[in-house]
Each structure stands twice: as C-alpha cells, then as structure tokens.
Amino acid sequence: MMEFSLDIGQVRGLGTLVVMIAFIGLCLWVFSRRRDRDFAEARLLPFDDDRLPVTEQDPAMRSTRQ
Questions:
Q1: Alpha helices in 1-66 (DSSP H)
Q2: More confident residue, 47 or 17
Q3: CA torsion through residues 39, 43, 44, 48, sign
Q4: What are phi and psi of 60, to 5 degrees?
Q5: pTM of the complete model beyond 0.85
Q6: pLDDT at site 62
Q7: In the structure, what pLDDT confidence band is assigned to residue 7 with cuts at 50, 70 and 90?
Q8: What is the pLDDT of residues 33-56, one digit of tens each?
C-alpha cells in the first residue's frame, strides 16, 4: 500500500501554484476584449448621478445644517 504525505514545502508550493493560477485567470479576465464595453460603462458610474431625476426633498437626503 502506498502512503501519500505532504511536507510543508509541498503545501506551500501547491498554495503558490493555486494563487498564481488565480492571478493569471484574473488578468486574462480583466484584459479580455469582451469586457471592454462593461468596463467602459463601469468607468462612468461615478458620474451617473447626474442623470437621475431629482425628486421632492427626500428626508434622508436633506441636510441638517442651518
């Protein structure tokens, strides 16, 4: 019967390999040409408040300063 055991160096090596594969996958996802349109829209999200309709004074949004 064969016994399989990992020492700490092998565990660290496998952990490094998993993190490296995740990093490469994330880089491929971020720099994919198919994601350009989604990221272009997301880049403009901070300025999207200008397009929202202004409602009557919402009590949660009203300033408490006098």
A1: 8-30, 36-43
A2: 17
A3: positive
A4: -75, -25
A5: no
A6: 62
A7: very high
A8: 888 888 888 888 888 776 556 566
19-55 burial, b at 16+ Cβ within 10 Å, e below that, comes to eeeeeeeeeeeeeeeeeeeeeeeeeeeeeeeeeeeee
Handedness of CA 41, 45, 46, 50 (dihedral sign): positive
Pick from 57, 53, 30: nearest CA to 42: 30
The token pair at 63 is 């300033």
Specify the amino acid at residue 56.
E
**Under 8 Å CB-to-CB from 42, ≥6 apart: which residues?**
none
Per the CB < 8 A criterion, the answer to whether 9 and 17 are in contact is no
